[in-house]
Amino acid sequence: MILKINHAIKKFASTTAWFIYTKRGKKIVHERQVYIMPSSIRILKIYNESFRANMYSSEPFRMIGLIDVSIEYTYGIERVTLSFFRSSGTNSGKIKGLWYPIVGIKTYSGLFSEFTEYLNFVLTNSTRMGMADEGWLAKSLFFANGTDSSRIRGFSNGMHYESLLEIGETLRDLYEKDKFQKMDSLDASNLNSIVTSKEIYQDNRHTQRENFEKFIDDIFNEDINNTKLDLG
Length: 232
Description:
The protein is α+β, with helices and mostly antiparallel strands and 232 residues long. It has one domain. Helix content is 23%, strand content 27%. It is built from 4 helices and 10 strands; from the N terminus they run E-E-E-E-E-E-E-E-H-E-H-E-H-H. It has a 5-stranded mixed sheet. Strands 1-2-3 form a 3-stranded antiparallel sheet. Helix 1 runs parallel beside helix 4. The radius of gyration is 17 Å and the shape is globular. The relative contact order is 0.20. The N terminus and C terminus are likely disordered.
């Protein structure tokens, strides 16, 4: 049963799409002819000294962390905080000790509504069944099935793959050398708040939230174009 048709047009990456909201809250992408221009967004630099982390779970042992990077947008170069987690290597073929990107962390079980409106939309459309359990690390966007089997899964399938993998490897090296700031206050809620903050960093023109959503949108649209997401 269709409850509502949302003509919310997402134009972050020159993409136009229409979506239907169903009774269970799932969002179905109508197949339309969509033109996606080559991405003009790219990561330029990693600020190693900004790496801060905290233990997320002991069994399995996982760390969560934040790292600032310099990203080039159409409107200029901005400093942006991205979120990662250190894998325990226990499932999904993830490599133990490698740091993987996440959108955020689920703070309660069920549908996605604890993030921003757009991030909720992305996670609903990139996660099986459009829901997850409390404590789940929101990494599904970066694990979309690609066509290049030589790539390490978990770092997206588009032009940002190399940059995200480089960040993950850099964080692994920094962590193993104990070159990071221990941030005791970093938990699920705090991590989510930081990456979606409305703060405008020094020398930036846009908020952290705007820049983060723009980057996530670029990955989401690339993966829709390059892979068939399981909308479950």
